Amino acid sequence: MTGNDSDLINAWLHDGDERAFSALMTRYQEQVFYLVRSMVLDVEDAKDVTQKAFIKAFNNLKRLRKKDNFRGWLLKIAVNLARDHLRTRRKHLALEPWTAKGTEVTPERRMMDREIKRHLKEALLSLPPRQQEVVGLRLLKGLSFKEISHLLDMKEKTARTNFHFGLKALRALMAQRGLRP
């Protein structure tokens, strides 16, 4: 089933067309999963949080005022659920995307990547939570500051400031460990 988000939502809400919500899930499942995956450490946890986000969206779809903003609304639900998960499970940002792409994978390279990830994880975890989130969403997911500000309920300038200070602290911490970008 195709159509814009608003049409699919209306087909689901007014006509009870289950294919419409299924189409929305198919359209956004990967985006939601990778967003959540950037915030939680475990792949299975990310799958669980993603599923919970769609269930919550399904149950609250009638409350969505701007039908054309479904994507942003869904991503916000996912971010909030990932935050809840982190609070209860005490897990932190995943670091898989930090490995260098296009380099030959040798046993030595794998060992270096693991060591860099370990140092990077320690450095990221020492940042204040807001800076962790902003730096992770910006660097790991490539989101714009506008998107980050919307997802995290902050002003765009606040997102930029958190990113600036978080990145500055991250660089300093990595330099203390003898690792320079």
Ordered list of secondary-structure elements with their pairings:
Elements: H1 5-15, H2 18-37, H3 43-60, H4 70-89, H5 107-126, H6 129-140, H7 145-151, H8 156-176
Can you describe this structure?
By secondary structure, the chain is mainly α. The protein folds into two domains: 5-89, RNA polymerase sigma factor, region 2, helix turn helix motif (Rna Polymerase Sigma Factor, Chain: A, Orthogonal Bundle); 96-176, Arc Repressor Mutant, subunit A. The chain is built from eight helices and no strands. It has helices spanning 5-15, 18-37, 43-60, 70-89, 107-126, 129-140, 145-151, 156-176. α1 crosses α2 (18-37), α3 packs across α4 and α5 (107-126) packs across α8 (156-176). The longest helix is centred in the C-terminal third of the chain and has 21 residues, at 156-176.
List keywords for this structure.
Rna Polymerase Sigma Factor, Chain: A; 181 residues; single chain; 2 domains; mainly alpha; 8 helices; Arc Repressor Mutant, subunit A; elongated
Report on the biggest sheet. Answer: none
Oligomer: single chain
Specify the overall morphology: elongated
Give Rg in angstroms.
Answer: 18 Å
Superfamily (CATH H level) name of the largest domain: RNA polymerase sigma factor, region 2, helix turn helix motif
Determine the mean pLDDT: 80
Q: Count the helices. How many?
A: 8
What is the count of distinct domains?
Answer: 2
How many strands? 0
**Which residue ranges are poorly predicted, with pLDDT under 50 across at least 5 consecutive positions?**
90-101
CATH architecture verdict of the largest domain: Orthogonal Bundle
- Could you name the CATH topology of the largest domain? Rna Polymerase Sigma Factor, Chain: A
Helix and strand composition category: mainly alpha
What is the CATH class name of the largest domain?
Mainly Alpha
H and E order: HHHHHHHH
Q: Work out the helicity level.
A: over 70%
As a percent range, the share of strand residues is under 5%
Distance between the termini: 46 Å
